[in-house]
Amino acid sequence: MRLRLSIFLAAVAAVVLILRRFNPMEYQLFPPCLFHRLTGLNCPGCGMQRFVHALSNGHPIEAVGYNAFLPLVGIYVMLFALERLVLTGTAQQRLRSFVEGRTMTLSLAVSVPTWFVLRNLLGI
Q: How is the chain classified by DSSP, letter by letter?
């Protein structure tokens, strides 16, 4: 369990450190969004690399400008990782019932496609 957590945290830290140092608008270290390249539309995750770069360099408002949905998704991912990689027993079960519960699943199933449509209609 601790090994998985360590590997996960090391991978996240490595990506954040790379994106902190290298601005994705200047360096193409990671592959571009294939969906955007093929359609010209922004997928729900478009702007994520620029978001991480701006946030890790202390510019939260700029980061949200690249993708306003990522702070919400980030909270969900952190809760999911906490439930899967850190907690055990009753605490894990309680958080799992929230993170993987019907309400959260339905919320994500509605909000992700809604964000996809809105960001392309409104140009955000």
A: -HHHHHHHHHHHHHHHHHHHHS-TTT---S---HHHHHHSPPPTTTTHHHHHHHHHTT-HHHHHHH-TTHHHHHHHHHHHHIIIII--HHHHHHHHHHHTSHHHHHHHHHHHHHHHHHHHHHT-
